[in-house]
Structure formats: C-alpha cells, structure tokens
C-alpha cells in the first residue's frame, strides 16, 4: 500500500503541489478493487452465502436454456414426439426455473443489503476524511467536485456492484460451460468458433481503452459543467449587478455543448464496437455451417449435433455481447471508486496526532518560534515570526492587507502547519496537541462568518451542542446583543438562510461571534470578526467581550484600530514579518508602520 | 410575529403533505407521467427519435429474420447436403452463409443506429434541459435564489436532468422490442393459432407483472432519488462551511449528520433493491416459462397430429429469442419513477415565475446620473417590510453616504438602486426613468454596485475584473490602480492571468475586496454604489482609495454605505437609516448637530477613545494612590 501511495497523486510536477491536491490513485483496476474491498468489509459480509446463491442462479440461467433445447431436440427428434418425456422434462425445467428465480431473489436481497451498507459507510468515511483534510487540500478542488466524490462517484460503484459484477460472473460461467459443451459436440467446430472470436477478445480491451478515454473526457467536461453551473448559482448577485448573464450563459453553453459532444463521441465508439460481436457471431455461424457440412459429409458429425451446436453458439456470444457494456460500467465504477479512495488515500496533512496531548483548561500561553510559511507553490508569506502571547493577554494584530495576518491566525489555530519553525501552546508543540483539546481551547472567528441554513439558535449552538435556548439567550445578553435579538420577529427561531444570507452582513458576524463565544474557549481569535458591524454596536460588543472574557487570552485582527487601542499589546505585521510590537501608547509614539496606520485611522474617524 | 411563524409552519406542513401524497400516488399515474415526460422528449427531437426507432425496428426485424435465416439454411443447405452429399449443395451452402452474414450486417446496422441515435437523443435533451435550467437561474430574481439551497439548484441542473432523461437510452430498444413482439406474434399466429393463444397469455402476464413491479417500485425509487439529492445538499453545505466546522471542532457532529442521511439513503436503496431483486428474476423467468408452456401444449398437439414438429421448433425458438430483449421494456419502466421525480424538480425551476420584466427605455445619457427613490417600501417576506417609505434624491455628480446601524436596510437599499430587486411600493428612478422601464442590460450598463459580500469567480484576475466586458489592459490597470490593487496584482505570479481560486480563496480578504472594487470602477459607471466596500482594507489603503475616488468622482454619482468619518466626509450629503426608515438626511455637520442616533453611531470610536483615555487616567491616578498608600 505504501508503495502505491508513493506512486499515487499527480506528483509529476512539483512535489509541494502534489501534496496539497486530492489523490486519484493511479493504481490498477484490480488493486483498486482489492483496496476498496479491504476498506469496506461490509461487502464481504455474508459473501459466501451470496456467492453460493449466485452460483446456483448462474447455473440455473445457463442450464435451463440448455435443458429446454435438449427437450426440443430429444423430445421432438425423429418426427414422433415422446410426449411423456416432454411432459416430465418440462415440469422439471419449470421447477428449475422457479428455483433459479428464488435463488436470484435471495441473492439480490443479500447483495443489495451488503453493498448498500458498505457504500453508506464508504460515503461516511469519505465525508469524514474530507473534513480531516487541511483547508489547503480542501481548496485544491472545487466544492462541487468534492461533493461528488461522496455522492455520484459512490453511486457509480453501486450500479456496478449490483448488476455488472454479477453479470461478469455469469458471463464467464456461461462462456466456460458453452465452450465445454461445444467441445463435447465437436472440437474442430469449437476451435473454429474460438478462432473467429479470438481477435474480438484481443481487440476488445483496446476498444475498451478507447471507450475509457472517451469517458474520461466526458467526466472532465462534466466537471466543467458543474463549475459553470455552480458559478451561475453562487455568483447570482454579482452576475445580476454587472449584467454578465450573457457571459455566464455562454460559459455554461460551452461546457454543456462540450459535454454533449464528448458523450456523443463516447457513444459512437461504443455504438461501433458493440455490434462487432454480432457480426463475428454471424461469420462464425456461417463458418460452422460450411465446415460442419463438410465434416458431416465426411461422417464426423451428425445433422442433429450440428444444429445443436449452432444453438450453443448463441449461448457463447451473449456474454461477449454484454461484455462491452459490463466493462464500461466496470470502468465507470472503478473510476468512481478511485476517486472515493483518492480522498481516503490523501493523507490528512494537518492531522490529529495519535496519542495527542490533552492540555488542561485554563489560561493559555502561545509561542511562535521562528515560524515561516508559504502557500503551496507560492512565495513565503510569513518570515521568521517569533512571538509570545502570555496568558490573559489581549493582543491586537494589525497590518496592511495581505501582510499575513489571516495566515498567522490559521497557523495559530492549526488549520495549517508552518513550513518552518514551530508553534507552542502551554509549551507543547501544536502538532502534538490532540484536536479535541485544541479546538476546545482555541477558537477562531474567521473573516467571513459562514452560517448554516438553519435557525439562529441552531447556528449559535454549533459552538456548544449541549447549550439550551436559555444559555444561548444568556450568551447573547452577555455580549450586549439582547436588544438586537428582541428586534428579530422570530427571535432565536429566525431562519438565517443559505450561508446566512437572510441576515444582514453585520448580523451574520454577530451570530458567528456569539457562536464562538458560546464555545467558551481559553483563547478567542477574532479575524476581522466585526468588520461589518456598526461602530456603536462594535464598541459595545468589544466592551462586553472584554469584560466577559477577562482573564482569558484574546487575539483580534482588525483594521479598525479601536481594537488596537484597547489591547494590552499590538503586533504589527508588514510583508509577512512582525515589524513592531508593544502597547498602543508606545507604538504611536514611535516612527513606523503603526504610527502611519494610526494616523490614517485617526483621520478616518475624526470629522 | 406569531403569524409569521404559523405561516412558515403551514408551508412546512403543506410540503410534508405534498410529499406523502406523491408517494401514495398510484403507480399508473407515475407511468402516465413518465410517458408524458418521454413525450416531451419525443416532441422536442422527433427526427432523431423516429430514426432511432426505425433503426431499432430494423434490429427487431432482423432478430426475427436471423432465426428465419438459420431455418432457411438448415432446410435448404444443411439438410440437403447431409441427404445428397457435399457437392450438390455447395452453391446453396454459400448462399446460406451469405444470407446469415447479410442479416447480421443489417442487424448490426440497426443496433449501431439504435444505440448512437438513442445516445444522441438523450444527450441532446440533457444539454437542452441544462441550458434551460441555467438560463432560468440567470433570469430568476435574487429573492428566488435566496429561497433555494445551492445544493438543490446544483442537483436540479445535474442529477435531476440526468434522471429525467434516463429512460431515453433504452427507449428506442423498447420500441424496437414492441415491433419484434408484434412480428413474432404474427409469425406465431400464422404457424399455429392455439400456440399463439398460449403465447398471448404470456405477454399480458409480463405486462401485468411489469405493472405490479412499477406500482411497488415507484414510491420507493422516488424516495431514494429525493434522498440522494438531500445527501448531496448536506455534503455541499458542510464542505462549504468547512472552516467553521474545523475551527469549532465539529467534524464528528457533521459526519454524524451526513451519516444519518446516508443511512436513510441506504435503507431506501435496500428497499428498492428488495423489490428489484424480486421482480427482475421473475421477469426473466416468465419467457422461459412461456417456452415450457408452449412445449407442453405443443407436445399435446403434436400427439393429436394438428401440428408439425418443425413448426413447434420454430415457435419455441422465437420464444427463446424474445426472452432477453423483452426485458428492455422493464428497463424503461424501471427508469420511469426516477425520471418523473427528476423532471418534476426540473419543471419546478422552469415553471418558476417572477422573473424581472424589462421595458425599453435606455440610460445611455452622458455624465453622472440623477437618482431618486420615492416612497420605497420593500420586504423580503411579504408583510414584514425591511424598508418603509424611503425617499431621497441624489443630484448628478454628488456623493451620498448611507449610514445606519447593523441591519437597518442599507444593503437592501443599494440593491434596489441597482435593480437587483424591485420595490414592493414606490419607485426608484435614474434620470427620471423608472428602473422597471429600462431595457434589459440597461441598468447594469449604467450602474455599478460593489456588494458588501465580496464574491470572486474561479477565474483569472482579468476575468474577475472585466466579467467578459471587452476592455483593454490599460483600463484594467487603471481601475486596479484606483482600487489600490495594482501593487499586489503585479506581484502575482502571472499578473492579470493569475487564477484566484474558488471564491478567490488564494487571496487575502482585503485583496479580494479591492478586486471587487476594481470590477466596478473599470466600467466607469454613471452611478457607483459602494456597499461597505472598504471594510476589509487597512486605514491607509482606504484613505488612498477614497482620495482616488474623490478625484474621479466628477464622472459619476456615488452612493456609499459607510461608517467611518473619512468616508462620510467625502459625501455631500448623508442619508441616515434606522430600522428601515430614513430618520434624517442632510449634510454631515447638520446631522451631527441635530440627529442623536446619527451622532451616537459615527462618533462611537471617538467617544470610546476619549473614555478609554479617561479610564486610563483614573487607573494611573489610582495606582499612584495605592503606591502612596504602600509607601505610607
Ligand atoms: N490560499 C492561498 N493560496 C495562496 N496564497 C495565499 C492564500 N491565502 C493568502 N495568500 C496570500 O498570502 C498573503 C497573506 O495573506 P493573508 O490572508 O494572511 O493576509 P491578511 O494580512 O490577512 O490580509 P487582509 O487584511 O487583506 O485580510 C497574501 O499575499 C495572499 O495573496
Ligand atoms: N435575503 C433576506 N431574506 C430575509 N431577510 C433579509 C434578507 N436580507 C436581509 N434581510 C433582513 O433585512 C434587514 C436589513 O438587511 P440589510 O442587509 O439591508 O441591512 P444592512 O443595513 O445592510 O446591515 P449591515 O450593516 O449589517 O450590512 C435585516 O434585518 C436582515 O435580517
Ligand atoms: Mg485577513
Ligand atoms: Mg449591509
């Protein structure tokens, strides 16, 4: 597995990039299946029974038509029908048919149960793993594509598991039985049939590869369609504001038409290859007739056997006919499986450490030691950042846009790991702290507060699932937001809409803040968490926060320097370095970035 | 308040009852609905459909013919050869071989045509529906978008469209099979009417079984399809909010939420599987049972001498031949429930009304625009207006600041001015023209709104700034310069051609916001609306942006939503909103003097600073005091 992992990924180009993107393991089909089966033990659950039933059902499917044929041959041979024989044989066959159906039913039920259970678990695992991946890895793929890795791709596996897989077993069985029976009738004719079909069997995989390439194109286009469509949905406001409907429509059209063309092409390839077996079968039948007659004249085969042989050819070709179809479905399933396994194979680069340290709750100290960071494939954005945050400090982080403040925050909350240096909390390397402990102690309110499409209460409760409505109300009151809550017609039951879009931007931030506050962390990290809130509310909120989180550590990133003025200490970032540090009162007196920023701020707020 | 909540409950309930009604709907109606869906496709692509059916009919005919060809070869080549010795039949033998291969070629052509044309029809319909659905997304008002989850809209355009046209793939085959059945039936009737009767008993039995199958399957399959959509909606939302999930350490809870849905889907799929698992083998068994019945009856008739052996062989052979293709009918029927659900979800989008109506007036005038709002009222939910009785006027070239506490309706107002939404009551005019009378594209040609929530497309910097508008690079750079984005854009790896990632993920918050600003400025709009468009940039950059704007602003009328004095100071006039109504408007100084709410809002920082300074003094005093005490 490790050897495979190393080969996996698109790691042809630069190493760093490959690490950040989701893997789509280049492993062979068999390996994919083996690996997949290992990951989903449910598939093997009761497999022996299912297989036994499958063998019975398959045998039934193969033998019944042969038996029927035999009845026709024997019972009607020679002009005088052997009616009692026919009657008994027919009844026997009918019983066999019903038994076959019964086996088929039982097998199907077991198969559906085990595959669906396995796939549901696989979905869950994939979903969970996506959340375990670092934000950078998550961002390396479009959301829609990420979603389809746990939805559509899994559906493709199920379609194959419930139909194709069995069809292959049946087909191979049928091929073997038909060949054996044919050989009993005449080995020479059997050889002829195989000679006719051998080229097909050799060419088939090549066709298959063509088809598979064509389908890869289809999938690529499908990805483009997904992206173009989602643009028209998520960007609807901008598209309207700038009247770029036509451009968006054009993009969608290009993708949709491209997809249609690719699909049609794939279908053409299949359309041309599919009937080949049919034609080869006809050639084989014709050849068998010609050769058979010659053999018959020479006395090595009887008329009846020749006719029976012709029937067996039909039995022989039908599995080959479905083969293209089944292989196709198998291709899709394996491609889907690869994509699902690709998620699971991608190592959680920012992982919860095994035997992680659980830090006791209480005042928290943080130290950055010569931390550097570069986004994958990009230049370094943080250089040599060293800073200590002592327990209970209120730290403000300021700096030009793009100077690395958010990056600093993401490192502190371990959304990413530094490329060099280390970060310590309470003297322990952040990479050794267990996630549950870390998330409990350090909570960040990100720059844009995402809300779920649920009620206000549910969104705030996301911070602490056990909180009652009363506690939520209390938290809002403590933050000085009781008036705002009372102003909402439905109060805590107010639906916030998609991404919180039924609230105003400022209100959204209030909710995000309350959510983090309710989580009750030892270190609260605010990344421009109140940038859209009106000044009066912001000041009130800052004060409330100040008093309710007294004794805890707080780090606030803000462009509104009122935050910096209230802080114990200010960190000033510029071009990825900390250039100044100290209390506001000191820094304003020094010449430097902070004084300049503050001058702009003072002129911005002063009339 | 209570009225609203009951209303929403009611709609919830009606949705519930809709669901259960749907699932109780008799299968026949699902079948009828399914055929209606197919009808839509047939009407849309009659040519392709006809060709596909003809090809399939060719296939069907040739399948029957192939049995006949084999019979002919047996009768005219094989048997004579065995009877008379090899030489006599060589000609007939070659003829028979040619005949068999010829029929096979025609059959292959039929298969080829059927498959390719069926594909063409299916893909055309999918492409058509996708385009229609997305056109509708682009046409429908924002309010509609707000009501529909992103995940749902995405699956409407993707998996629902796919499901809707799923039956088209096996459809021509099924029609061909019907042709085959009819041909076979005629052949059987010609051979022996009594055997035909047996055969005809089998056909209705198959039809009946299919019907029962449908009836059992439909509600289950529909439920599964719905759950499939729900699973992907949950995944979509959860991945979208991944940052929040992570920072609050709620991965397990989210996984549980997803797993619950996935398990529901699993159960639904297993329920579907149980029905499929029962009926598929039965449907497969029926034709074989038919052959056996034919044999049984045929044997009796052979005994009584009313049937020839060869005829019985031919009829039985026909039956075995039909056994496989007849299942194609089942395939179409099996796809129908999903198709019906998919299509009804697609139809919901296509039938959604309320797209904006446009007039014919233009806003092409030169220079800055005059803007007026007259008694405007707007509510996202009817009955709960967010803006009431809002009136103001902005003279050409002037700058107006819209100020108000969080949630007071500022963004709503800007959206009305850019006609993203239409007022419920009252009028918004530009240069005296009601925005509703302006031709399509007219408003966005004259007005540029920088939304409060920055949104960037997964495109290049250039693409994000121009949004398809044909502008030379110099103008793009000029706009970037004005938005103070020139520096960081030129530092990007590929400059204007750098891709910014989904929602601009590879840029910092302030960088994203400045690109959004440049997007508006590059258009040189007659009315520029900035909704808190500098909230994520630092004070220095903000200052430079504002200075730049002030110099340029002779070209446009500007409406700016802002809190900071510096921005407000740019404005000639201020409109102060509180809870959706204009409390006061006028020059900043006047408002500062006479409007208490306004004063409290805009001087909050200053007062805060002053108070802090006082507090600090006190603390210092106190510490002095305490020091003294200690000393004493
Ligand atoms: N995901 C990413 N991939 C590549 N580069 C990134 C990514 N996120 C940020 N950057 C780059 O890293 C630099 C620092 O970004 P960061 O978000 O830390 O800035 P910031 O100080 O928070 O700025 P702002 O005040 O605008 O929010 C910027 O130049 C930005 O373009
Ligand atoms: N899509 C929506 N559906 C329902 N209600 C909404 C929607 N958007 C906004 N609202 C409500 O309308 C009111 C005004 O919202 P708006 O966004 O206009 O406020 P705002 O003044 O821009 O606030 P902010 O300063 O926070 O940006 C708010 O109470 C908000 O909850
Ligand atoms: Mg930032
Ligand atoms: Mg707003």
Structure overview:
The complex is a heterodimer of chains A (607) and B (632). Chain A is an alpha/beta fold. Chain A has three domains: 27-185 and 333-349, ABC transporter transmembrane region fold; 187-300; 366-605, 3-Layer(aba) Sandwich (Rossmann fold). Chain A has 22 helices and ten strands. Chain A has helices spanning 2-7, 15-20, 29-39, 47-76, 83-132, 135-139, 143-150, 152-185, 187-234, 236-241, 245-298, 303-345, 405-412, 435-441, 456-461, 469-478, 482-487, 505-519, 535-548, 562-566, 584-589, 593-605, and strands spanning 366-374, 380-389, 394-399, 420-425, 428-429, 442-445, 523-527, 553-557, 569-574, 577-582. Chain A has a six-stranded mixed sheet with strand order 6-7-8-3-9-10, with helices on both faces. In chain A, strand 9 (569-574) and strand 10 (577-582) form a beta hairpin. Chain A starts with a helix and ends with a helix. The model of chain A is unreliable at 1-20 (pLDDT under 50). Chain B has 632 residues and is an alpha/beta fold. Chain B has three domains: 15-350, Up-down Bundle (ABC transporter transmembrane region fold); 371-594, 3-Layer(aba) Sandwich (Rossmann fold), CATH 3.40.50.300; 604-632. Helices cover 68% and strands 9% of the residues of chain B. Chain B is built from 23 helices and ten strands. Chain B has helices spanning 2-24, 27-44, 46-84, 90-139, 142-147, 150-164, 171-191, 193-240, 242-247, 251-303, 309-323, 327-351, 410-417, 442-446, 461-466, 473-482, 486-491, 509-521, 539-552, 565-570, 588-594, 596-602, 604-631; strands spanning 371-378, 387-394, 399-403, 425-430, 433-434, 447-450, 527-531, 557-561, 573-578, 581-586. In chain B, the strands form two sheets. In chain B, strands 6-7-8-3-9-10 form a six-stranded mixed sheet, with helices on both faces. Chain B has a four-stranded antiparallel sheet with strand order 2-1-4-5, with helices on one face. Chain B is elongated and about 125 Å long. Bound molecules: adenosine-5'-triphosphate (2 copies) and magnesium ion (MG) (2 copies). One adenosine-5'-triphosphate (ATP) sits between chains A (375, 378, 381, 399, 401-407) and B (505-511, 536).
